[in-house]
Structures are given as structure tokens and as C-alpha cells.
Queue: 3 jobs
Job 1
Amino acid sequence: MLRECQSHGYFRGETCPDCGQEGRFLMNEHELNRVGRIMAGVLRHFPEKFGVEMDPQGWVDIDAFIGQLRTQKDRLHWIKPYHLVAIVATDPKGRYQIEGDKVRATYGHSMKLDLKDLPGDDVPDDLYYPVTEEEVELILERGLAPTDRQKVHLSRTYENALAAGLRRAENPIILKVDSYQARMDGHLIQQAGKTVYITDEVPAKYLSRAD
């Protein structure tokens, strides 16, 4: 459920976590999930298929995006720009960013983009990455490189990496990345979400088992 509290802004849930008021209804869970899936697809993978233009940094015009949503999805004819702003503001993973009248996804892209403007000055000394039992030895030998995405995605904590790994393996193995030394050696690592960091690659010398 997506709602807006007059005093504390947008929130997800039945009542405002700050004051307990119900606030103004914006979207039910089904609508929120549906729009979220469309946003992920368009902003990470196929803007041209949805009829919106994306600049080299991944930004698209909010009004243009909302216009295409209303045109192409009859059941979303009611959606307005503030609904998208509310989704971004309350996204638990910080997957999206708004600046002025534009929106973008901050990670997860299958398209090649220039994301050099993402912050890179507050990176933890250690980051984490989940792998399977079958691939762990190969990765420890060869390092990490992108597969279906343009960047390697690293997690802030062991727990974050474990949660990500459980989506693709029953018993993921968590690798620790010496991000401090990697950065000292000139590798750019940037924060792209609340718990996600991206980089072009992680050479094997910076990897070790975390458990």
C-alpha cells in the first residue's frame, strides 16, 4: 500500500510510521507492484520499446514516462507524476533516483550507460558478493566480471549479500571484497542504492571467502 502523510510525506503500509495516521491513499499493492515492474524494465532494459528517450546517464523525462504509461496501460490511466515520485521516495532498496523532472534506475542495467556521477566517496572497506558452490573456486581464481548486467553488483553487508544470493541458490557462499584496497589501486566503486555498490570488475586478488 502506498500512501501520503500530510506531515511526514510518502510511505508504504497502512499507517504512517512516524505518526500513525492513515494519510491519503495513492496505490494498492497490486498497482504498486505492476508499476514497479514496468519501471524496472523500462529504466534498466528497454526504454525504446516503451517509447521514451533515455540520455547517456540513464535519465528519462518523468512526464514522458507517465504519458506512455497512461497511453499503453489502460488500467493505469489515472497515474500522475507524483505517484512515480512516491514510488521512488519509498523504494526500500533505493533503486531509483529523481533529479528535477527526470528519473533513472541507479543499478541493474543491461544497457551500457555512463553512471560516473554516482557517489564513490563513502564506500565501506569491505563489500560482499554471493556465489554458488559450483562457481566459487572459478571466481576466486578469475575474479568477478559482469554477466547479464553492465556492472558487477556488490552488497554493503554479509546479510545483504546472503539475501541476494538466496534468490538464486539454496545455500549461497558469500565472498568478501577488499574494496578499500581495490579503490586504493584505482578501481572505481560507486554507491548505486541503499545497500548496492557497482564496479566494472573485481580482480581475484581482492576476493576471499567471508565464511
Note: The chain has a mean pLDDT of 94.
Job 2
Amino acid sequence: MTLQVKEAGGFKFVDEGEGTVLLLLHGLFGALSNWEGVVSRFSKDYRVVIPMLPIYDMPLKEAGLEGLRKFVEAFVTYLQLDNMIIMGNSLGGHIALVYTLKNPDKVQKLVLTGSSGLFEDSMGGSYPKRGNYEYIKERVEYTFYDPKVATKELVDEVFETTNSIPKAMRIVAIAKSAQRHNMAEEIPQIKVPVLLIWGLNDTITPPMVAHEFNRLLPNSTLRFIDRCCHAPMMEHPEKFNDLVSDFLKEKRI
């Protein structure tokens, strides 16, 4: 499906369906399109909302986790969202955790997949090199178990982004902010039910990270998907959505 992007109140976002709010947060190199399978599956029964995070154009001095948390707070206030289920991939999971700690009354459940917050191997161990298409192609493929998932369109998008000096400066600032912000001491305070969906072959946030999240989050469930790397909702959308569906139907305190 093609996602319809709305613009209002200074925000760009997807807003599909009705019912309980499912707020989706993309990662550092993510895009709204990462969530097409989730929107297609869940917009029949939920109100699926995806803000376009201002990763590439927010003021440089605000480019970090706190700035992104405040952006999500402003977005939630603008749309008057409440009692949300938040789903985050990679950096989006990290933002979801930071947001939940500050706004526990707004969140009823969390779904984290390949989340940063404890450890991540950023872009395979190095920051993006500008101007080298083959290097960018290799790094994008590194985030998937099956390199073919890294389409030319996706590689071109990341290449264009990293080739812009202003965008690259913000990417580096946000990545460093995320790497500095280890949440091991904070996340045991999160009591809402959490589903952790991890690629068994994740090279960015390896399986050991998922086990550590599972240990530290007191009300969490961990599920692995085999032959899957850092973006399960893109590589195995049906398996991912089935796990999410089961979790959303569960009645837990």
C-alpha cells in the first residue's frame, strides 16, 4: 500500500484507521515506508499514526534524544493522542523508551524491535562515509539478513541523505547522543507490557542486547525471528505482524 502523508501543525505524518492509537517511530535512517506492512495489517482495527521524525532538519543544537523526545511530546499533544501503544525500531525504540519514562500515563504497551538504548553497532562500526556509493550500499545491506531487501531505491535514499553535510552532521550528533545514553538503570522503572521482537541475525543490536532488555524490563516478552537482521517489520512482515497481533490481544497488567 502507498502511505498517504498528511501535513498539519508543522508536522508530517501518516494517520490511518480508527480505535486505539498505535504510534510507530522509525529509526535513524528509517522512513515512513518502513512501516507499510504494519499499517496495512493494523489500520483495520487501530488508529495507526506515524510521525516523520525531524532527524535531518531539526536545529543542530537540539539534534539528540532529548530533542526527539520533545518533538514526539509536541506531536502527541497536537493530535491529542492518549492511551497509546508505541512501536519503535532501532533509534525509534530508544525514543519510545525515553518518552515512556517521561510520560508513563500516555502509554499502555510498547513494542521494541532492534532498539538502541543499551548497545548498538552504528552502521556496522563506523559513521557513514560521504560520497562513496558502494560503501553506503554495503552498510545498508549490512542491516538486512537478505541483502536484496536493500533495494536500489533505499540505498539511493541513504546515499542522498549522507551526502548532504547538514544532514550528515545531524545524523552523527543524534547517533552519538544515542550511544552515550545507556538506559540500563532507567528502564526497570517501565512497568507496562513490552514485546521485544528481534532478528536472530541482528548485526546492529545483536541478540545479547535483546536478552538484556528482556532481563531489565520487568514486564517484557522476547520473541526472535530467524534469518532476520535489524528491521524485522521489513524483512519478515507477516511473522512480525502475527507476533504483534498476539501481543495486542493479550490482557496483562
Note: Residues 6-128+174-249 form a domain with the Rossmann fold fold (CATH 3.40.50.1820).
Job 3
Amino acid sequence: MALDPHQIVGEELLPILKKVEAGERLSREDGILLCTTPNLTAVGYMANIVRERKHGGKTYFVRNQHINYTNICNKFCKFCSFYAKKGGPAPYQMTLEEVKHRLEWHRDVALTEIHMVGGINPRLPYSYYLDLVRTVKEARPGVHVKAFTAVEIVEIARQGKVTVDQCLADLIEAGLDSLPGGGIEILSDRVHAELFGKKLNGEEWKMVARAAAKLGLKQYATMLYGHIETDEERVDHLIQLRELQDETGHFLTMTPLSFHPEATELSDLAGPTGDDDLRNIAVCRLMLDNFDHIKSFWIMNTVPITQMSLWYGADDADGLVHEYEITYKSGEFGNKSQSLTYENMVRMIEEAGRIPVERDSLYREITPEELNATIRPKLSPLPMATA
């Protein structure tokens, strides 16, 4: 006998369930209750209603490669293990030839997206960033270049002595296709002042987002959780994103990012739990009614939690990745190879009972035949998907 949905959520969450079933927008108070209720199963159940209403059983993924062009940074964020510092990663700054070489590492892999971010390195001139984008486009014709967080965009504009609008226009002309999330972590003045005061504040971050939207540049959104933020600040972050999306409509997806304290100035904090990861994905899905997609970043969440998340609101499992340098395990600063094969990605999604769907960076569904005809015309044909 099937369970009554009202029994699953219980009396406390029943008003939220009714809103979810009716497709109504949730309030700040609803969001805080979702963050604090011990009934995680109910939160996931409701998030799955929204997820399946939008996407059914489909789970999207992309063939991507990450390139972090420098780890030299003058922002000194307390939550960061990436930037070069004493006892941590050695400083580096990639030349354009080194970027080409990095792209050649995976020449035999069909890729549709190159994701590039880096530290705020005051030594890099304006021309470097334009040439960086051009280099990627020349080395991998046809790929989508997703690059530069808002804080990087402001630094690039400063180096070029141009406005943010002009900077974005120049980068688009060079081949920039979209902006990643990041750069603000969480929209809280309190957390900003305590953890990353040298970076953009919330209003400055929104200014860059509005400039990108005005130029037709799509953007991704993120939230870093699990450090010193409160439940109220998490919900406020989501509401501010929701309001900005109402205004611009240019965000493609939301990725909740779990904070890993290893090798940071906050190393005394506990690491993320399964409850943290699943709850934040589910709450994002429920609060962000105007975002089409919620992503589980499997490198931070782990493969098993990502599989679970596909029933807690997530409809995107990110991509194959091929090296990720932003989050290091303590004492393993050289261990950067983190990737899934195409077959393993498909298997991961199928094992969770979902339908794997390959996408491009703008969430258009693509087939192996289309990929063979465009991104990898000189390589051997790809195997057909099993799903």
C-alpha cells in the first residue's frame, strides 16, 4: 500500500508540501524550516517532486576539462586551500604554451567545455586573459569556454583600465561563452568581512552578473556552505539569487559547493556530511523555483552522495572534469587528477536509477553522432550511449 505523502512530510512540513504541489514560491521562513527540520527524507521527497516536474528522470552531464591558469592570488581567503602559500601549493602561472600543452593532455578525449578559473594574480596583463581564451579556442575548436569568476572579471578590467562592460565585451569577442559561478561564496556581509574581505562584496558581485546578462552572457551560480555561515544566511543567499534571476534570467544552473576545511585557515572545522550535501541540494531545488537546473558536483560531494542527490533535487552530475585543483586533500597538493570516463559517468547515473543525458554547456541535449560531427571530427568515433 502506497504511503500518503502527508505522512511522509509530517504535520510540520505539510504547509510547504502544499505549496510545492501547487507550484507556489516558498518564503524565507519556509527555507529556514527546510534547513533545520530533522526530517531530511521529507525535504528530499519534496525536492524530488520539483526535480521530476522539470526533468523527469533525466540527469545531465557534460564532457569538460578544468584549467586553473594560476594559483597566485592576493585575496588570501580563509577558506581557500588553492592559492600559493607557505606550507601549501607552490606558486605557478601558466604560459600560453603551457595551457596548450595541458589541452593536449586530453587530445584523445572528446570535450565540449573548457572551464577556466584562477587566482587574482596582479602580474598578469589584460592581454594575457584575451590570449588565454583565444588559445583555448584555437587548440580545441568548437568547445564552449566557461571562464573567469566575477572577482576575476573585475581584476581583468582593472588591468585593462576599462569598465566591466567593456572587459566582458572584449572577452566575448575573444571567444568567451559563459561565466562560471563562484567569486562571492555566500551573499552575507558578515561572512564576507570575516572570511574573504579582499574580494568583491555582494553588491559588486551582482553588478558583474547584471553586466553579463546585459551582454547576453550566460552564467552559473554557486553557494559555498559548511564554514561559518548560518542557516539564515544560506536562505538569504538563495533568495538574493532568486531575485536576481527574476531580474536577469541569465543563470543556467545552481551548484551548492560543500566546504572542505583541509589545508585552509579553517582546518579546525568539521568536514561536510551526507546530510549537509543532500539537504543543501534539496533546499536549493525547492527555493530556486526560477532556476532550471541544480547540480551535484561529484568531486566535492563524492560519487555515492551525487547518486543519492539525484533523488534529492539534483538533475545534473557535472562532467568528466579531468584534473581539479581548487580543493586539495591535506598533504596531497600534487594529487590533481580527478576524472570520470564517459562510461563511468553513464554507469554512475544508471546505477542511481536515472537516465543519463549528455548536454552541452547551455543544456542542449547532444548525441554521440553530433559530437563526432563537430567536436572530434579527427578522432575515432565515439561509442553509442547505453541509455
Note: The mean pLDDT is 89.
